[in-house]
């Protein structure tokens, strides 16, 4: 009988099954409540929680996220842009496309150049203005040298939606179409290549950006039944979560999934599947079948959505599973195991 103590590993932060099991064991079991005013509770493990306001005044959406990335500054963005965009996007995934306020908490390693922190703060300011998401409060802590790797940021976001107007990630029904708003794998593949010093040809850079304006355009164009931003664990994890939570199967056409030539080539060289790595400026939407073409057109007319595509649909077969049509046959698309790319978001 082993008395070896269980420990947290990088795989617990990868965004897939091991992470969800850890959260359910450590957090949900302790903090979940039976509050009747909570439309999306902690146990839903969605991108945020949704709480009804008094007198039918809508609902407040709350989300929080912590951000660590190596390097701090990378092609297409930096940890500051990542922190603001990530939290704004989590609000948008719940239907709150006009953020009320963000918080900003910094944890900084002693000895970090002030110029480094100033660059991050300026990036956060620019991104918050881009997203229309004011930063209104925060906190700063300084750790000893070696107690933290340079800088970590926590951001919390608050937004308002009309009562019943939130969009869960569990809302798929058979017949709904799945839309991906742009090329996948850009963030994770770009960071890995930069971190490892690979110089691939092509325009390879992170896609980190706030998507709340894009989501608002999609919601105005038709009925959105479910949303997820494919961050940790990539598109594969997001699709599997949406299938499992919605109680449906998904049939996906691999050839329809937008992947840039640069990402496909770099992923092949690195042995990394673009469907399994993080994106920071893309969305997966479930859309009512009759509205799919109109929503796709609205997304493609947005500057961030030119490469958007309908990639599949929800079905009432093989519930909780994702079937990938490769063009040569079908296979299950499963969640990645372990942590392929540590410290990318």
From TrEMBL:
GO biological process entries: protein maturation
Residue ranges annotated for the PurM-like N-terminal domain, each copy included: 46-161
Alphabetical list of Pfam families matching this protein: AIRS, AIRS_C
Superkingdom: Archaea
PurM-like C-terminal domain sequence ranges: 174-324
UniProt xrefs under SUPFAM superfamilies: PurM C-terminal domain-like, PurM N-terminal domain-like
Listed PANTHER family: CARBAMOYL DEHYDRATASE HYPE (PTHR30303:SF0), HYDROGENASE ISOENZYMES FORMATION PROTEIN HYPE (PTHR30303)
Family to which this protein belongs: Belongs to the HypE family.
Record-linked NCBIfam families: hypE
Protein name, per record: Hydrogenase maturation factor
Organism: Halapricum desulfuricans
Taxonomic lineage: Archaea, Methanobacteriati, Methanobacteriota, Stenosarchaea group, Halobacteria
